Amino acid sequence: MRIEANPFAYEFALKDTALVLIDMQRDFIEPGGFGETLGNDVSLLEAIVPATKAALAAWRKAGGLVVHTREAHKADLSDCPPAKRSRGNPSLRIGDEGPMGRILVAGEPGNQIIDALAPVEGEIVIDKPGKGMFYATDLHELLQQRGITHLLFGGVTTEVCVQTSMREANDRGYDGLLLEDCTESYFPAFKAATLDMIRAQGAIVGWTAPSAALLAALNHAA
Ligand code: C5J
């Protein structure tokens, strides 16, 4: 299959490719969650849900592998170093009680993937304690077992966990493409810069494309 992408076309085989949705969890996206508590406009992130839902539905219909990640720490925070927990000066830190349970702690209501994109049976769900999806997870082994070489990305936030995961993926030999309208940042300028950085210098990190280009490729192949 071929996606009309930037900076040039992206070729992939369905059986070798996974759709990865990064951290589409309630605390980042829903009003009343952790993200909003920090003063962010979560409506920016909510706006990508319809396009992401459509891409996920089309990918599932085509029979492609789906991976969901959550930024999630153990309840005892043994996997959350001070360098992460004490960064900045937030009113709420990781592990504190937030509006939807303990912030970024596995199993809490705010840590669940939003209903519109909830995982279904057979999909991989990774709880990751870092920004990148391969750090301290078994995802690389799970993808290798399935012969996955190509990764399509969506999720939040573009410049933090999505970009870090794409760079980690590139270092591990995966060809990655970011679906432009299925990712968002609380800071639009950071999203724009990240898209540019990823595809600069001949796709130094990977490719980007609108989700319509993926849907067109899937329709063409059907
Ligand atoms: C993610 C964050 N998922 N921005 N986390 O990007 O802190």
Question: Describe it for me?
Answer:
The chain has helices at 26-29, 34-37, 43-46, 49-62, 82-85, 139-145, 158-171, 188-203, 211-221, and strands at 2-3, 10-11, 17-22, 65-71, 97-98, 101-102, 124-128, 150-156, 175-184, 207-209. The model has no long low-confidence stretch (mean pLDDT 96). Strand 8 (150-156), helix 7 (158-171) and strand 9 form a beta-alpha-beta unit. Helix 7 (158-171) packs parallel to helix 8. Strands 7-4-3-8-9-10 form a six-stranded parallel sheet, with helices on both faces. The chain has nine helices and ten strands. It has 222 residues and is an alpha/beta fold. The structure holds dicarbonimidic diamide.
Q: What labels would you give this structure?
A:
222 residues; alpha/beta; 6-stranded parallel β-sheet; two-stranded antiparallel sheet; 9 helices; binds dicarbonimidic diamide
Termini distance? 11 Å
Sheet-strand content, in percent, reads: 15-25%
The total of helices stands at: 9
Bound molecules: dicarbonimidic diamide
Oligomer: single chain
Q: Based on helices, strands and strand pairing, what is the structural class?
A: alpha/beta
Can you summarize the main beta sheet?
6 strands, parallel
Number of DSSP E strands: 10
Averaging pLDDT over every residue, what do you get? 96
Order of helices and strands: EEEHHHHEHEEEHEHEHEH
